[in-house]
Amino acid sequence: MFGLLESGFHYFYWGNALMIAIGLGLIYLGIARKMEPLLLIPIGFGIMLVNLPLGGMMDYELLLKAPKAGTVLELHKGEGDRVIRGDIVYTLDSGDEGTPVFGRIDSIKVSKGSYVNKGDIIASIITMEQTNQSEIPTRPRGLLSIIFQFGIMWQILPPLMFLCLGALTDFGPMLANPKTLLLGAAAQFGVYFAFFLSLFFGFTLPEACSIGIIGGAEGPTTIYVTSILAPHIIGATAVACYSYMALVPIILPPVIKLLTTKRERSIYMKPQLRKVSKREKILFPLIATIIIILFVPSSAPLIGCFMIGNLFRESGVTERLSTTSQTAFVDILTIFLTLSIGATMSAEIFLQSRTLLILLLGVIAFASAAAAGIILAKIMNLFLTEKINPMIGAAGVSAVPMSARVVQVMGQKENRQNFLLMHAMGPNVAGAIGAAIAGGVFLGILG
Amino acid sequence: MLQGLIDGTINHAGRDSTTMTDWGLAIKIACGGFGLVFMLLTLLSFSIWVTKLILDRIGNTDPEK
Hints:
With about 450 residues, chain A is α+β, with helices and mostly antiparallel strands. Chain A contains 21 helices and 9 strands.
């Protein structure tokens, strides 16, 4: 612009416009419809920021180095040129060399005819692609890429977020009725069903694990697993998980109605759960930590943080830590996590057929998780004298507390005397533990 | 047995994403993983029940304030 300043118009294309529209759509859902506003608004804004070209907030620098010594015969790209994966950037006397990422050429360090040694820098490319750092190392240059690299790719933010979730979680309803843990376990079927389906659609094993874990309906778990196993699809999996958590009031009811009769939905459950002692609430996170991590050591960051957060809440002597974890700390982490996740969704990364597949598989994961919980509840009723309302099985989809609220509302519609909220909270929080274990299992095998 | 499952799958999995899907490994991951999650949560459920029994027996169950 006037030869002084480069504007983003030159690089703006229909993909950016579409992604900005999607970002605005998420912001609309958050503000106007009040659907998970704390998550959807920063995610939507992050999407907008990264799709305004040359903003640089999610930039990574990749240094293209000469694989062999030789003479530069030809330079096919110049500074400012856009490149896609595989584009030939230069030719050495040993052959053509291409770029492993999409982006734009930031600078060319050599000229035609110059001799380069192995490892000499030929060019630097600015990309927004999340790469496997051991194969394609990049250096973050933008604000959000730095937060993403050192917060998410270093696996710091998701476990800390889980700590805050532990501080926010009351395990009382689950402890009052421990068999609801089985419903939370059954709901993890959605994880493995989506895992299998993903393989049928041609995703690799690590990608299938990252897509399957969406079915755990836990944002931090999804981000944590995907950042290790398949960071290149982290945007799609995280947006799928958080969006479907917000859409639980739309996803669950048809599944519940399909798998239950009106009579089953009307099953009355006594509103009063047994009193859970303070000692039980203190012992639970300690016992759970020891048992789970002994069996699945790779779940230690998630389960360990979840349970220490819960212990802060229940111990009665760490009020300050509990209050901080439930308020300021979780808000700070939410801002960092969601803004940087939103910023992973540039048009070049998001607008691929596999993204639509991931979104489809995500909703299948949620629906099958709910279905599995309901089916197990119905099976359990064959053996129980005091029947459980099978709808609470759907609350094993651990979008806490939204799933439980959906079950409460549907229960009230069938029987106004039926207060299912606290009963549904049992499988709801059990599902959170189950999702963390499932994530740990994936990481233990493939991480 | 569990450690053998995990060790065997780690040796197979590797990090090469260009190989065709190993369906045997996938079935092991899915069935073994789901089974492990279910078993662990069942064990946890049992532990909660046992903890309550023990606390009731030693008579130190304080109702929550």
